[in-house]
Design a protein that fits this description.
InterPro entries: RpiB, RpiB_LacA_LacB, RpiB_LacA_LacB_sf, SPI_LacAB/RpiB. The chain is 46% helix and 16% strand. The chain contains six helices and five strands. Helix 1 links the parallel strand 1 (2-7) and strand 2.
Length: 150
């Protein structure tokens, strides 16, 4: 699976740690920045990752900033994207299983490296389904997409 990542200056180190972790776990990582500790406003990075998902350059995305809030807000402004802020494994898993979130966000000032690895693993191991027990969730995701198109 290809995973897109991106961060702002507050989360550069966490992104780099998680990038190495993901590659070690066999994921192909597409890095949309930042690439050094040069400051770049997070909305630009969030947009790049979201557009990469929509353009099928990656299947899922992970964005990092200080709290995870700004990246989630920015990514959700890109039509067709559902981004969920996550700070624990349960919300990360449910981001995919209940909401088919293409992107999760993690706050580097809220979550440490080891927990971030567990969050990312929970998210990437979950698989949304429009069938079976996922029908209720699928209906809700479709409602969200309809709201977006109004």
């Amino acid at each position: 699976m290809k995973v897109a990542v991106g961060a702002d200056i507050n989360a550069f180190e966490l992104k780099e740690e998680l990038k190495r972790y993901l590659e070690g776990e066999g994921f192909e990582v597409v890095d949309y920045g930042i690439y050094s500790k040069d400051p770049v406003d997070y909305p630009r990075v969030a947009a790049k990752v979201a557009e990469g998902i929509l353009n099928k350059e990656a299947e899922r995305g992970i964005l990092f900033c200080g709290t995870g809030i700004g990246m989630a807000l920015a990514a959700n402004k890109v039509k067709g994207i559902r981004a969920a802020q996550t700070h624990d494994t349960y919300s990360a898993e449910r981001a995919e299983l209940s909401n088919q979130a293409q992107i999760i966000t993690i706050g580097s000032k809220v979550v440490g490296v080891e927990l971030a690895k567990k969050i990312v693993s929970a998210y990437l191991s979950a698989d949304f389904s429009f069938e079976g027990s996922g029908k209720n969730s699928a209906r809700k995701v479709e409602e969200i997409m309809e709201m977006e198109n109004r």
